[in-house]
Amino acid sequence: MLFDTGMVIAYLAVLAGIGIYIGRRVKDADGFTAAGGRYGTLTIFASLSASYIGGGYSSGNAAEAFTNGIGMTLALFGFSISTILIGKFLVPGVERFKGAATVGSIIGMTYGHAAQVLTGIFSFICCAGVVGAQMGAIGMVFNVLLGIEPRIGILIGCGIVILYSTTGGLQSVIIADIVQFVMLVAGMPLLLLLSIRQAGGLGTMLGSLPSGYLNPFNGTTPAGFFSMFITMMFGEALAPPYTQRLLIGRNPRGTARATVLSGLFSMPVFILTGLIGMSAFSLNVTNDGATAMPALVKSVLPTGMRGLVMASMVSIILSAADGFLNGASVGLVCDTIKVVRPSISKRSELWWLRVINLLTGAAAVLVAFILPGIFNILVLAYSFWSPLILVPLAAALLGVKSNGASFRRALEAGLVSSMLWNHVMHKPWGIDGNVVGIFCNLVVFVICTRSFNKYREQRLLLCDRI
Description:
mainly alpha
């Protein structure tokens, strides 16, 4: 066990070293945000894939599969489909926003400065929540694998992420993501293969599960399953760290290809992590679904392999945390503080980026301490993104002409409707408020945009007559 623990410590030391090395080369805000379109297709693919397969989509999915079966695994395919569609239809629109480095800069170019400021604020809230979910997962993983008290594990995991993301910014995050992608590809299939072999084969393992585990509606209703599918489809779509990666590619065609490949890659990964959860149930390695994956690691793997997969598990969670941590600081500073104070220098902007990165990490720790449940935190974080920003952002990438008033009214409609549905009406029919909020945001945005375009056409006709 000491050898395995040493492998995890060595891996964490590598990540810290990456941050310190890259941090010495980051001299201004452009270096921190990796602006300038410097990355190719394979780098974008690896970084994007590593970033989204975090604690929620790995150990969280395994926990849901352990508890209720295949439902959550299939619902996660909504994310895969949305990523493929984004690559096919939205990424080509990035070419219209050359020089943009953040979601807010796209929003600002399309809907004005006020919209950019609001986007920066909600980017920060959403990203801090997602980082909190990943930190909750890393606390649990450290506890089960290494026997470290969960809150101490949260502090260790967040400390490492803060170190390399604060010093090196998105450049160090990208390099760390590539390392983490390799760890993911090596570790997770190995865990599943050895687990299925110990269970007597795939057929034997599946046959040992309760009868409802292969029913996607087990533990929910068809409406509840559809709601979760839509939440997964749109919840993280074009979220700040993912959109950042679309903006740092060398060319839109290569970035689009990387995005589609990433969406396709996610499908077998979701199946793999779901099967890991069901294997943990079949082998009866724990009574707690939340610990299914790490408990399986300790149960079925020999020394050496166990250390590799332990490092892989840590890697998966940190890879999502670092991107969202960077996205939070970049969004708040570049899209809010810089817009409010346009005279800020590049070096001062870098100072603000690093300070906000630290504060966001602290906020994430607080979220992880207060709110239980990885998926609960993720869904709460999504409520400050997809019902508010997703529709106007997608419209901007599609080249739809609109204005700031349409953006603000759609945002208000999405925020109010999702909050009322979840917290006043308490999710009728099991449908999450994010779904309702996205729908209301879309309806209001379309109505306001059509009114704006009609008014604009009338003005143009009037000017032509004059």
